């Protein structure tokens, strides 16, 4: 596996990552097997831009006991409404609430990488 090094921390991140956009279609046990296999192959990066919030509790179970072995990327501005409907937002309170909800559902206190979600135009920053 090829890795890139974060200059300030010295942490290594694999150039191949697990992408989250379609993980809602994967059963919890299959996701655990996928994460196991990724780690065996040297993949240590997971990008959790997900279509539905049910991915986060499944990923929490898949990462149990080995959270520090993976670099988790969460998306700022990706939120879910109470009914689970995906929503993109730039309203700071919604961004903060959505980020906190993702952390809570994953059972972690931090993300290693923060992405600004869904940037198509300069105003999206």
Task: Summarize the entry for a quick read.
The protein is α/β, with parallel strands linked by helices.
Question: What does this protein look like?
Answer:
The protein has 125 residues and is an alpha/beta fold. It has helices at 28-40, 55-63, 92-106; strands at residues 3-5, 12-14, 18-19, 45-47, 71-76, 78-80, 86-88, 113-116. The chain is globular and about 40 Å long.
List the helices and strands and how they pair.
Blueprint: E1 3-5, E2 12-14, E3 18-19, H1 28-40, E4 45-47, H2 55-63, E5 71-76, E6 78-80, E7 86-88, H3 92-106, E8 113-116
Parallel strand pairs: 3-4, 4-5, 5-8
Antiparallel strand pairs: 1-2, 6-7
Helix pairs in contact: 1-2
- Our measurement of the CA-to-CA distance between the termini, rounded to an integer number of angstroms, reads 32 Å
Order of helices and strands: EEEHEHEEEHE
Helix content: 25-40%
Which sequence of strands runs across the widest sheet?
3-4-5-8
Structural class: alpha/beta
Radius of gyration: 15 Å
Number of helices: 3
Query: Rough shape?
Result: globular
The major sheet is characterized as: 4 strands, parallel
Low-pLDDT runs: none
Oligomer: single chain
Rounded mean pLDDT is: 93
Keywords:
125 residues; two-stranded antiparallel ribbon
